[in-house]
Design brief:
Length: 432
């Protein structure tokens, strides 16, 4: 008698979760439309309006503040990779901002002539666009400098992270704070270094000025687009900075969905469990520092181009704290939340707080300088958020679930109540 083995049932894969068009493309399309509206309004509509409206609009939303807010968002996305994705507290992120800025100062300005007397007649130009009358020094194309600054800062992130990432929590925060304080001091005191102090590396507190213009490349063929974006071409600078912000957002989103991003999230959730599952902790942490630092380098070049120079006094501890507040208030781990948080806080810090203070003073007859109390106000906002909305404005789904879980005592009391209810129901059934 022959027996036949029944055929195995076919493997049915669960259907892929359906995502609506709005949930997948809503945020990207929203930011694209917002960028187009901001550029179009400031480039063509605002110059045609009457003087009073134009003055009031520029008081509330000047183009310089918009550009600076976009640059802050690039930095915040870089810090979000370190803090929001990997769960590594970094209090010295301003160091990468400074390194990126000084890379721009070294490679996009006449400053190289001042490094040493032997370089007084140095003139190197690699597709650069120096300002009129400042042809000497080193002038490398803006788009090449972005790549160079990203690589230099990524290397710096690895060098800084290699000896420190074995530490955890508070100890790691203190070490990164130390690095964040050391590098600005190097920038401030780098005017006379080397034998007999003949080398000028950073120009000290005087800083580096005369940053090159931004070339537009083939886009200059479009009517109205200049060949180079100068100091006062604010709307075209906005397009460049918004494009780089879009690249940073795209990279953040794509990495998060890949193998590296999942490894970062695993370390953030439970480092021990991640190591037991075969995640190489040191290498993955270093990659987070390197990628986050690369974003800082790109933002540093943008900021140097935005203000036309690099000043050592700009890179202080408060910048790192402000960036951390942007990440926390926006929603750690959520690219859209961090971007919105950075744009809003940067605008408030630059012009919004002063203008809101003027409205308050006009309405109440008081004379309070709200701009001078920005850290007091930010501190109060942080306290309120930590009490009532710890997950941020636009939280990541996982972070929201974790932070909104009831406390252990509440869970135990709920379990006890359910157990007592079940026992009472069973007792009543026995009596019947």
């Amino acid at each position: 008698m022959s027996t036949t083995t029944p055929a195995a049932p076919p493997v049915v894969k669960p259907p892929a979760p359906k995502t609506s068009f709005a949930s997948r493309f809503g945020w990207p399309l929203g930011f694209l439309i917002l960028a187009i509206v901001v550029f179009s309004f400031n480039q063509w509509i605002l110059p045609e309006t009457n003087g009073d409206f134009r003055t009031g609009y520029n008081n509330w939303l000047p183009m310089t503040a918009v550009n600076e807010a976009v640059i802050w968002a690039i930095f915040a996305l870089g810090l979000n990779i370190v803090v929001g994705y990997s769960g590594l507290l970094d209090l010295g992120y301003v160091a990468f901002w400074g390194i990126g800025g000084y890379v721009a100062g070294w490679l996009m300005a006449p400053f190289a002539n001042q490094v040493t007397p032997a370089w007084a007649n140095l003139s190197v130009n690699i597709f650069g666009h120096p300002l009129p009358g400042q042809d000497r020094g080193i002038h490398i194309n803006f788009w090449l400098v972005l790549i160079i600054a990203a690589l230099v800062c990524a290397l710096a992130g690895v060098i800084i992270g290699a000896p420190t990432l074995r530490l955890k929590s508070d100890y790691l925060a203190l070490v990164t704070l130390g690095f964040g304080e050391i590098l600005p001091e190097v920038f401030r005191n780098g005017e006379h270094v080397g034998p007999d102090g003949k080398w000028n590396i950073t120009n000290g507190t005087k800083g580096i000025t005369g940053i090159d213009q931004i070339p537009t490349g083939p886009f200059q063929l479009i009517p109205g687009v200049p060949a180079t974006i100068g100091t006062f071409d604010l709307t075209f600078k906005f397009i460049v900075f918004a494009f780089l912000l879009a690249v940073a957002m795209f990279v953040s989103l794509r990495i998060r969905e890949g193998r590296l991003g999942r490894a970062w999230l695993a370390i953030r959730e439970d480092e021990l469990a991640a190591s037991m599952m075969g995640v190489p902790l040191m290498r993955i942490k270093l990659s987070a520092y390197a990628v986050g630092a690369a974003f800082g380098g790109i933002g540093g070049v943008c900021y140097a181009t935005h203000v036309g120079g690099v000043l050592a006094d700009r890179f202080n501890f408060s910048v790192s704290i402000t960036l951390l507040a942007m990440v926390v208030l926006g929603g750690m781990g959520n690219v859209w939340g961090v971007t919105v948080g950075a744009l809003v806080l940067a605008w408030i810090n630059s012009t919004g707080l002063a203008q809101l203070g003027n409205v308050w003073n006009d309405a109440t007859g008081s004379n309070v300088n709200f701009a001078s109390h920005n850290f007091l106000i930010f501190g109060a906002v942080l306290v309120l958020f930590m009490l009532f909305r710890r997950e941020g404005l636009i939280p990541e789904t996982r972070t929201k679930q974790v932070l909104q879980e009831p406390e252990r005592g509440e869970i135990e009391s709920l379990g006890a109540e359910m157990e007592g209810t079940a026992e009472n129901t069973a007792a009543e059934g026995t009596k019947k």
